[in-house]
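Hey, I was hoping to borrow your eyes for a little while. There's a protein on my desk that I can't quite get my head around. The fold is given in discrete form, as structure tokens running alongside the sequence. I'd be grateful if you could look everything over and explain what you see. Here's the protein in full, and shout if anything looks odd to you:
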Amino acid sequence: MTAGMIQPRKRRVHLGQGGRLLGAVAVAAACSLGFAGVAPSATAADVQSEQWYLSAMQAEEMWKTTTGEGIAVAVIDTGVNSSTPSLQGQVLKGLDATGAAGGETDDYTGHGTTMAELIAGTGNGGGLKGLAPGAKIIPYRITNTEFQNKHSVNAYDSRDAIRAASDSEAQIISMSFGSEFPTTEEREAVEYAQSKGKLFFASVGNNAQEGNEEEYPAAYRQVVGVSAADKSGKVGEFSQHGQVTDIAAPGIDVPYWCDETFREYCDGDGTSQATAIAAASAALVWSAHPEWTANQVLNVLFDTAGRDWKKGTLSKYLGHGLIRPSMNILKGKGTPGDPDISPLTHEKTSGSTGSAAPSAPTSAEPEKDGQTDDAAMADAGAEQNDNDQLVWILGGVAAVLVLGVATFALVRQRRAI
């Protein structure tokens, strides 16, 4: 039986709550699968002025030290259009894992190109400015549900893309895709990525108000699950939460390409954008400390995350807190820790295949960690409102917001799924 004969899993991109076209005047538009329709193009000033998080995260100051040079990020997504002005010269050779016509630079929605620009866009020609504009992008094209319904495709595209990225020169993998259905093949590919020293980020999903089902790959224990926060540090109501959440990044009111025509940008919300920005944050820290391992980079990101709760506890909405690479790059804060111990699994990764612990069948209801007692996490019925806010650092000034203890959990001990 060929791979294309197996029914692929349903999968969604994690971008787009609403969707606002950027132009001289903001125009409301209906969205389909998180992408808005055609409207007047945004100017460079319009688009880049909407990237509020760049100033909030002190990007200009960080770029005086590092822009992410020497780091490559594998973007596993809908493809990356390497010809946009912001990505010219930024995209390396990747892989098309779809099994359909086209290649890894043929983006069929605009989603993957957005992620690449948010990570490493130069901002040239009016495009998005990436948080790590000195980094490079390696694209890996996979399918979403709509693409699967229109084409004969490779049912193992996610597995193949992750394995190819693991064997590439990329240090970081960013995947703003997800499915409620884990597979043995994908899990083993994720374990392989860890054994190859990769730092893997994935979005937790946008369906908090529609079941909040754990999504993969974010729910795999070797993957950093990223949630979306707004300018004040409050988690988005759509952003999924629970044991899969490890860290939060800006993901609300963030521009993206409206569609595959690449004629205009829209403004919207999603854990997709947050994941790309988290990956770019890691690229900056790793570029500043090229001798570190993935474990050390992640330790520092967790250690320096913005929060005003006790270190060593986690929010089910924001994980360790808001990602703040400037705390390390500008202030030298953060403890890298043991280079060979994962801060996710607390297991040795160097020289390991990532499969030391036996895995439960993928048909089971998996947990990302070992906590099964609901009391160990936030109250499942807790309201989000003011309990989801925390410190945002703006130009070195801390704005402390009220937090509720119901949103936190003890440090989690993870188990294989």
